Amino acid sequence: MTKADLINLISEKAGITRVKAETVVNTIFDSMIEALMRDDRIEIRGFGSFVNRYYDAYKGRNPRTGEVINVQEKKLPFFKVGKELKEEINRSGDKD
Question: In the 8-state DSSP scheme, what is residue 73?
Answer without folding.
Answer: P
